[in-house]
Amino acid sequence: MKVQDHGNNLIQLTYYGFVNVYLLREDDGFTLIDTALEGCARSIVQVARQFGQPIVRILLTHAHADHSGGLDAVHALVPDAQFVMPARDARFLSGDMSLDAGEPQDRLRGGWVIRKTAPDRLVQEGERVGSLEVIATPGHSPGHCSFLDLRDRTIIAGDAFQTMGGVAVSGTFKPLFPLVYYATWHKGLALASARKLRALEPSRLAVGHGRVLKEPLAAMDHVIAQAARKVEELEPRASSLAH
Ligand SMILES: [Zn+2]
Q1: Residue 40 carries which DSSP code?
Q2: Could you tell me which of 112, 111, 158 has the C-alpha nearest to residue 132?
Q3: What is the Å distance from ligand 1's center to 140 Cα?
Q4: Which of 104, 113, 107, 111 is nearest to 73 (CA)?
Q5: CA proximity to 125, closest of 162, 88, 158
Q6: Residue in 134, 26, 116, 22 with CA at minimum distance from that of residue 71
Q7: Quick one: average pLDDT of 116-129?
Q8: What is the pLDDT of residue 103?
Q9: Which partner from 45, 90, 184, 237 sits 20 to 30 angstroms from 54, CA to CA?
Q10: Measured in angstroms, how far is the CA atom of residue 138 from the centroid of ligand 1?
Q11: How far, in Å, CA of 243 to CA of 81, rounded?
């Protein structure tokens, strides 16, 4: 496990070399963003203690197993922490794998697990969680959300982007790290979400898999253009919708 500091508020923990979780410093303690896998829970809680603050909130970007796997085990260690979850993906955690009528009916991909920790709070686009603003970024999963730190414009983007195996928009095939590609539900929506995050002009891009990028705009522009070309080849209509 590797620990890296980014600015004043963000601590990145990397497990097995490829799964990130983040501890975000707030006035009342840490918000833990994503929980990796079950076996990481004790270590996550220990790192927070070493940095001198309790975990007061657990927040997930989406329901996939490599982000929600540690949820129950972390929650058992810090039972007073509030569990905050994007409303749409919360259904998957309870085992409801249905798609809504208004959603693309593409097959759900990636690993899913049922977790017993029930959300204390469900959030949607535009709501605040401490210093974070919730940004709906569907595509990788139907209810995937990213989080904008309003203090310094860091974006914690979950799997809306990846930087492992090269920077990419979710759904772009990266041979050195294809996991995000294989788990992506809808490439057209993922592209639209990537553009939405770029338009927020983040100062830092923190992702679920790979290193944190500082001043990421040029890299984001580059990979958004790449993804747009691919989506256009595959689904001309989806790409015009994504504009
Ligand atoms: Zn992931």
Answers
A1: G
A2: 158
A3: 9
A4: 113
A5: 88
A6: 116
A7: 98
A8: 97
A9: 90
A10: 14
A11: 39
